[in-house]
Structure formats: C-alpha cells, structure tokens
Amino acid sequence: MTELNIKLGGFAGQGLQRAGHILSQALVRSGYHVFAIQDAMSRIRGGHNFYQLRVRSEPVAAMTNQVDLLIALDAESVSLHRHELVEGGLVIVDGDTVDLEIDDKHIVDLPMKKLAVETGGKPLFSNTVALGFIAGLLELGLDPLNALFKESFKKGDLAEKNAKAAAAGYELAAAEKGRFKKSLPPKDGPRRMFLNGNEAAALGAIAADCRFMSAYPMSPSTGIITYLAKTEDHTGLVTEQAEDEIAAVNMAFGAAMAGVRSMTATSGGGMALMSEAISLIGNAEVPVVIVDCQRPGPATGLPTRTDQSDLQFAVFTGHGEFTRAVLAPGNAEQAFYDTVKAFNLAEKYQIPVIVLSDQYLADSYYTVDPFDLSRVTRETSLLTDEEAAKLTAYKRYQFTEDGVSPRLYPGQTKHLVLTDSHSHDETGHISEDGVNHEQMVDKRLRRREAVIDEFEGPERFGNRDAGVMILGWGTNRESLIEAVEALIEDGNDVGLLYFHEMWPFPKAKVKKAIAHAPRLISVEGNATAQFTQLFTQYTGRSDIEKLLRYDGRPFLSEELTDDLKDMVTK
Amino acid sequence: MSTFNIWKPQETAWCPGCGDFGILNAVKKALEALGKAPEEVLMAAGIGQAAKLPQYIAANGLCGLHGRALPSATGAKLANTALTVLVNSGDGDCFGEGGNHFIHAVRRNVDMTLMVHNNQIYGLTKGQGSPTSDPGLVTVTQPRGVVSRSIKGPALALTLGCGFVARGFSGDVAGLAEIIQAGVTHKGFSFIEIIQPCISMNKVNTFMWYKERFKDIKEIDPGYDPADRRAAMVQAETWGDVIPGGILYQNPEGPPLEETIPTLAKGPLVKQPPRTDENLEALFETFM
Question: What's the pLDDT tens digit per position in A46-63?
Fold first, then answer.
C-alpha cells in the first residue's frame, strides 16, 4: 500500500486552503484516496494555518502526525512541524522569505516568491509554484493541476498564470528527485467524490428531499447553508438566513408544519438558543432535522476546533419529556446517509432529530464513491392526497397505538390542521385536563421503542469476542478503526464497538454485544466521558476505563494507537 | 353564521369584556368579506392572551412559542405560498420576547398580516409593564412607575420599510375588519397595531381612555395621503390626546420575499414534485 503525507503550512491569506484543495482533487482524479484536514485559527488573515493531506492507494479517513512533504510558506511552519517529518521526507521552503537552517539536509530551497512574481506577477502564486514542484516530485504530471486551474479560476488569465507558475515549480523538481523516494504516478480507477462533512450532510438533506433550510451563520456549521444556498436554483430547496438561531429553528418548524421537509444547522451556542424550540417541536409533533456541528465550549470556546462535548446536551436539551433521536456520523459517508436517516426518522415519527457533527467532520475532506441513491428512501407519516381525501374527520393529535397520528398539512384538504405548543387535546386545542396531558405525554414517548427498532445497532470492528472491547462514537470512528487494526496486528485481543446511532440508547443491542467483554475502554473527545455515562446508565457496566481528549484537536491514528496500547497492555 | 366560527365548541380563556373578542370578530368579518375558505387560512401565533385567537376560529392554526410567531409563520408561508397567513401577537409577545423577530420580519417582507394586540400591559402574567406601557405607569414590577420609553409599533415598522402600517381599535369592529381586509389584500408584510383595553390589569388605559382618543386619520385630515411616508411617520408617532387610526401608510415597498425566489415561481414548495436522482447525480458530478 502506498501512503504519503503532505502538509502545507502558512498564515491565513496565503491561499493555503485553495492550494491544498486543488492538490487533493488532482490526486483523487489520479486514482488515489485523499483525506485532508484543515487547521485554522479563528480569523481571516494571519495566525498559523495548515492543510494536511493523507494520500493512499487504499481508502483513508483518519489523520496521522507524520509528514513526508512539508511545504512551509512561513518560518513558523518549519518550527512547528519540522519534528513531524519522517526519514526521507523533505521540507520545502523559500530561502528568500524564510531564514534556513543551513545544516538541515531535509530542506529544499525553492524560490517560490521569485518564480511566482516572474510567472504570475504576484507573490500570491507562491503556493502554485509549490504545487507544480510537488507534482514533479511525485511524478503526477501537470495535466491534473492544469485542468483544475481552468475549472477553478474563470476570471481573466488567472488559470494561465497559475499554469505557468506550476510549470516553473515542476521544472525544478527534476533536480531534487534523487532526494525523495516516494511517487504517486496517475493510475486508473473509478471516479470518486472529494468533499467535506458539511457538504456530505447537505447532499444528504437534498437526497432526503429537504425543501427548506434556515440558519444563522456559526462556525463550523455555516458550510451547510452556504452549500444549500449555492445550489438552490438547481435543487429547488429554499434557504433563508435567519436573524438568530431562535428564528432559524422556528422557521424550519413552521415550514415543516406546512408540509415540507425542513432543517437547520448550528453549533453549540446556537444549539442552546434552539433548546426552547426543540421542546416545541417535540410537543407539537413536527418533523425537523437539526445539525449541531460541535466545537469546544463552554460559551464561545474554540470556534475553529473540534470537540464531542455536546452529546448529553443534544440528548437532553429542551424542557419537558418527549421523544427525539440523535445521530452522530463518523465520516462523510455516514454524514450523507445519517442525514437521510434523520429526515426519515423525523418524518415517520414526527420528532426532532439531531445530527451531531463536529468541526473535524464538517471541515475535513473525504474521498468517497458516489453516494448510492438506491440506499436512499423517503419515508413519511404525511398522508398522500388520496389518503387524505378519504378522511371523514381529522384530528391532528389523534391517539393511536404507536403514538404517531396521521399528518396533514394546512390546505391539503378541507380538514383543518391545528398545531399547538400548549398541552392540547386530539384536535390541537388547548387542554388543561390532567388525564389528557398524561395520555399525550405517553403518546409522544411511546415512539421511542420504534425509533430504536430503526437503528442497526453499533458497528463492530476487530475481534468480536475480544478481551478488551473499545467503545467509541461519532467522528473518532476512522482513527479508532485504524488503531484497533494496528493493535490486533500487534497481537492484542481487541475489538471496537462503534456508535453513530446515539439516542434513544439501543440498550438491548448493546448489552448483547458486550456480554463477553471483560474489559471496556471508552474513547471520547470530551472531559466528562459523556457517552460513557449514558452507557453505564443503560448497561449497568461501571468498570469502564476512559481515554479522553478535549484540547480541541481530533484523535490522530498513531497517537490513539499508542495511548490505547499502553492501556490494553497494562 | 360565520364560516370561521369555532369548529370545536370551547370556552375561551379571555376575560368577559376583553378586547380580544372584538378583534376575533373583526378577523372573521375580514376573512369572510375576502371570500376565504377556512382551509386556505393559517392563523399563526406565539403565546399570550392575544396569541390564543387561533384557538377560537375555524382555520388552520400554528400556535408556537412566546415571541416566535413571526419566524414560524415565515417558514409556513415560504413552504406553502398558497396559504393566507395572519399572525396574532400581543405587545409583550411581539415587542418584548419577539422584538428581534419583528424587526427582521418587517425587513423580510413576506406576504402576511401581523396584528399586534396592544393593551400596554402584560395580562396573562398579571400586570407587569410592557414594551408599549406609557412611562410613569405603576405596575407590580415597576412600583415607581415605568421608566423605559414605550415602543411605537407603527413608527418602528415604518423605519424598517414596512409597506402597510395601520392602527385599529378593538372597540371599532367594523373599522378594524376593513383594515384587516386591506392588510390581507396588501402584497407584502402588513402591520396592524390594534389598541385594546386590558380590563383586568390596566386601570389607566381603559376602554374609555382609548375610545376618547382613537380617531380615524380621514377624520383628522380629510386630504390624508397614505402613500406619503413622512406624513405617516408623524401620525405613527402621535400618541396622546389623539391616537390616529386607520391605514396610516400603504405603498408597495418592493416585491414580497417569496416573489424573489425563483423556485417559488413554480408554485408552492409543498406541491412541487419530489427531487429526482438525476438532480442529485448532477451535484455529485461537481465533486469529482
């Protein structure tokens, strides 16, 4: 298996993100799998940023802390990341702009700025010179880059200037080829998509036939509304930027009540503002999907970093008692299919469904096969016009065995639809009757078991009846899978029980899976082991060892492997 | 008998003699005069005594959260532009809890009619000052009298670019019905402030207090031009011995939001056919 890791470092405003993205796309089109992460500070210009690509001939969706090629556009990128370089790796810097340590045999002095000004007219083309150099060094050729320049830069002669800058870098690579052993020549393979978690979730919403989305911009969730807005005229989905998160979720609630599939997206702080409406949605029995892209809190926290500390908030937010579902996809594929599932659960059971993403998933780029539309179903409790026409009387909150009442939208028939946030009777009118209230609470809670039945249960990797079962959830999926594979290869008896269907807790399925596991180790991106607490509550297992990280950074696969190895072999 | 009479006999939660009864009658009259069928109408509301109005009328109802009627009504209208959407709110619901939503709903200019029942007091929570209370009003939470300036709803709406601004009185059902009818007919966001007494909690701004002051703008100035924004602002800010009523301003201020959305030109969202696989596949292509 070929693997190669490339890191582009610099300060914001140097075009790192675009350069990294173009290089990734060029590699994906050349038959490779690329997983890319971005690390940015919360500002538009300045501050240290990096874009890291992990390239493999096989699927990859976890990050490493090892670097083969470090393209350093400033001195800080060298001092911060030089230690990540593997034996045989290279640091590419511009000696005209960065003071070089003369005795570092790993350094290549590439006159990026000089060539950028000569070919493109501006120092901003420096990163394009670097791209050309990498394409030469890796024997990728210039064609994939040039094609992407043409698609990405439509204005004036920008594409041409980029091509010239890349060619200048490419030429210089030949002289350095002897210093670098790895290569990534283009190879044949199926066409694959390269996209981030926000885009995957947005595509999931489109596939689920979502028609309305309202949101208030908040990092790292903003990419969802921007993608849906950008594609609005193509998809026929209507987006509206709300004045705040309260309005955003209430708009989605109104649109859903009026009969269209609706959603909103936010991060922790916005989620807190939506708390009141999540309770409303539960009580009013209206299907709404809410995406929470977690970032470290409390309060403003770290706006551009990742975290898993909203789990219990998602599970418990909103006053009163009602059924909800929480899904926490582990990668772009799951972000797509779980979002589809979120809409189906919401529509079928008339409940709020929370998709718990995080900054790591939202902003990371994954290589995936085109999503399989034959796996996309559109389930609903909304009556068809034909079914509705047969009704002689209608009660929005009619008591039924499974707790789900037939749903009509206003104006669908002559039957009137009254949706209410008060405790209400079957018609939707305010009722202060105690018996009715209890019946309504029960009706809404009754759906919980049916929602659990819709879950496939936790995914299992590694040894099924392992002596050490590792518990994980959400976006730690890929690092955990790699770590467990490495541990097994190393002779350890470990398995992984991975959760993305978080709530309602699928107690029976889980109890069965851990029946023979003497040791449990839980891995989470928060300080209080929020999932472990729920796990203990529902399984009775309190002897769970914990590996927690809450510095705003994702678990990298080697670090995770090493930490788990220490625990497993203890 | 009105087609909008309640479809399920229910005792109202309003005090006998409440101005809300007059407003309810005016809403029914207006909808009947417009020839609307109950199923074409969506009455949206937040929380409060005013916000209970959708409970007592035969129409579709969207009773959401305190202060949040406008965003949920906005969502509903965008989802189904065939619906006639009216919103009933109180002075606390609209200008207190929902102040931010009011500002942006006016800016957004979605075709709907907002009626703010203004009795200058919090009724349901028993007599606290409201954002429209006159300074000096002694209440249970402002024992030294209200200090904050009162919000003049019509003036605020005008500064935000509202294309229909009116003031009615719950004691003048016929006049109010005409205003509501005009508001519903107006294409875009219509704002109607309805002054009404709270007979239980506001002993200053009583029925007689309002009745003595409320005067139709056409009586005040027979030559009044409701398309004149500056003149409207003068009337909207007038609140004293005379409280001007009627349509203070009407002038289309650009197309309603929904008319600017190309997708909605194809008809109501809720009626549009499901999205096809081809539509999705074309998007997948852009990531390859």
Answer: 788 999 999 999 999 999
> What's the average model confidence in pLDDT over A512-539?
96
Residue from A281, A287, A272, A354 nearest A320 by CA: A281
Whether residue B195 contacts residue B152, with contact meaning beta carbons closer than 8 Å, is answered with: no
pTM of the predicted model as reported, rounded to 2 decimal places: 0.97
Q: Which two tokens stand for residue A403?
A: 């707790």
Q: Quick one: pLDDT at residue A216?
A: 98
Tens-place pLDDT, residues A190-214 = 999 999 999 999 999 999 999 999 9
Give the integer Cα–Cα distance in Å for A16 and A81.
16
Residue in A179, A214, A166, A176 with CA at minimum distance from that of residue A23: A166
State whether B68 and A277 contact (CB < 8 Å): yes
Cα gap B77→B85, rounded to integer Å: 7
Distance from CA of B232 to the nearest CA of A (A): 27
Q: Which residues of A26-65 are buried (b: 16+ CB within 10 A; e: fewer)?
A: bbbbbbbbbbbbbbbeeeeeeebbbbbbbbbeeebbbbbe
Both tokens of A70, joined, read: 């470090």
Report chain A residues whose CB lies below 8 A from the CB of B73: 254
The answer on pLDDT for A318 being more than 60 is yes
According to DSSP, the residues that pair with A521 across neighbouring strands are A470, A545
The count of other CB atoms within 10 Å of the CB of residue A261 is: 28
pLDDT digits (tens, 9 = 90+) for A390-427: 999 999 999 999 999 999 999 999 999 999 999 999 99
Of the candidates B76, B260, B112, the residue with the CA atom closest to the CA atom of residue B189: B112
Which value, in Å, is the radius of gyration of the alpha carbons in chain A? 26
Mean pLDDT of A131-144: 97
- Could you tell me the two tokens for A549? 């990280």
CA distance B106 to B104: 5
Q: Are A293 and A267 in contact (CB under 8 A)?
A: yes
Q: Which of A192, A257, A373 sits opposite B288 (nearest CB)?
A: A192
3-class SS string, B206-268: CHHHHHHHEEEHHHHCCCCCCCCHHHHHHHHHCCCCCEEEEEEEECCCCCCHHHHCHHHHHCC
Burial call A472-501: b when 16+ CB within 10 Å, e when fewer: bbbbbbbbbbbbbbbbbeeebebbbbbbbb
pLDDT digits (tens, 9 = 90+) for A60-112: 999 999 999 999 999 999 999 999 999 999 999 999 998 876 678 899 999 99
Name beta bridge partners: A49: A10
Nearest-angstrom CA–CA distance, A410 and A374: 31
Pick from A192, A206, A415: CB nearest B283: A206
For chains A and B, count residue pairs whose Cβ atoms are closer than 8 Å.
199
The interface pTM score, or ipTM, of the predicted complex is: 0.98
Q: What gap in Å lies between CA A482 and CA A498, rounded to an integer? A: 13
Nearest residue to A163 (alpha-carbon basis) of A144, A179, A146: A146
Mutate to test the interface with B, among A193, A238, A245, A374 (most CBs of B within 10 A): A238
Cα pseudo-dihedral A366, A369, A374, A379, rounded to 10: 0
Q: Name residue B190's beta-bridge partners.
A: B113, B164
Average pLDDT, chain A: 96
CB contact under 8 A, B104 and A247: yes
Q: Quick one: pLDDT at residue A95?
A: 92
- What's the gap in Å between the CA of B12 and the closest CA on chain A? 10
pLDDT score, position A121 = 86
> Which residue from A minimizes the CA distance to B45?
A420
User: Distance between CA atoms of A515 and A508, rounded to whole angstroms?
Assistant: 11
Q: Which of A193, A253, A378 sits opposite B75 (nearest CB)?
A: A253
Beta bridge partners of A465: none
For residues B115, B120, B126, B127, the Cα torsion angle rounded to the nearest 10 degrees is: 170
